[in-house]
Design brief:
This protein is α/β, with parallel strands linked by helices and 274 residues long. The protein is built from nine helices and eleven strands.
Length: 274
């Protein structure tokens, strides 16, 4: 098994968020990967329900302070870090008062997506890659989980395609049964255009419901992991139709995580050692 550097990005990670298929997988898979001899980094949003005092989060001054321009407005990027001591794993948090720390989660009280999730998606995706760049830690592969991280491969493939720092970095999407009802603000397309999206990109994101976003993310990714037994069959079929590396779900945790790491090898190459 090759070594290499794997970046994990998720909207949920236990114990910082309530238990779910996403949160469980993104708590245990990075640990397995690290114990397999790889370097890892883990990122998630710092929603208001992530208790800063209880989880002993602190700001990483050297990474914080830059402003990201979204929709012609400056938004401060704040990076915080916390630890899961029992797992010997650090988790970095993408924070901003307007989008995260002074807000709730991803949905309104009626269960529909929050009205500004379009900008939050963009800020989280771009902010994560900017923070990784400031860390001077170049990942060989990014494994992103959950629909809120779906802009990672867009930024990686389009916005950063000419940036030598991410040259050769691959991406893998983990699908779980986290489908939401309704749509993300359709203004996402216009804001993506301001972020450098091409006409081809925008056609992929013309549908801003769950399936539309995930199909676009699959299109931009190199591999697809079926992370739970309740993944929409239409998305699985779409991944196969687009000839992506697809790894089926396995309810034996250790076997599943070992196969995921073999998938990493098949995508980035098995002789990566630095």
């Amino acid at each position: 098994m090759g070594k290499g550097r794997i970046l994990f990005v998720s909207q949920e990670i236990m114990p910082f968020t309530p238990d779910s298929a996403n949160a469980y997988l993104c708590r245990h898979l990075p640990v397995f990967t690290q114990e397999s001899g790889r370097e890892i980094r883990v990122f998630m949003p710092r929603f208001s329900y992530v208790n800063e005092r209880k989880n002993q989060l602190h700001e990483v001054i050297r990474l914080s302070g830059m402003n990201l321009i979204l929709n012609n407005c400056d938004h401060q990027l704040i990076i915080k870090v916390g630890s899961i001591s029992s797992a010997r794993m650090q988790v970095y948090f993408i924070d901003n008062e307007e989008y995260f720390s002074n807000r709730g989660g991803l949905f309104e009280d009626d269960g529909t997506p929050a009205h500004d999730n379009d900008e939050r998606l963009l800020f989280f995706g771009r902010g994560t890659l900017e923070a990784v760049r400031k860390l001077s830690w170049q990942p060989h592969l990014i494994n992103f989980t959950g629909w809120f991280s779906c802009m990672i491969p867009f930024y990686l493939r389009r916005i950063n395609k000419e940036n030598a720092f991410f040259s050769g970095t691959k991406s893998v999407i983990t699908l779980t049964g986290d489908e939401f009802k309704g749509i993300i603000n359709p203004d996402l397309e216009r804001k993506m255009k301001n972020e450098g999206a091409t006409a081809k990109d925008l056609r992929l994101y013309s549908q801003t419901d769950y399936k539309g976003l995930m199909k676009a993310a699959i299109t931009f990714s190199h591999g697809v992991i079926i992370g739970s037994p309740d993944v929409d069959p239409e998305l699985v079929a779409y991944a196969h139709e687009n000839k992506r590396h697809v790894l089926d779900y396995n309810d034996n945790q250790n076997e599943f995580y070992a196969k995921i790491n073999k998938l990493y090898d098949s995508i980035i190459g098995s002789n990566v050692n630095n």
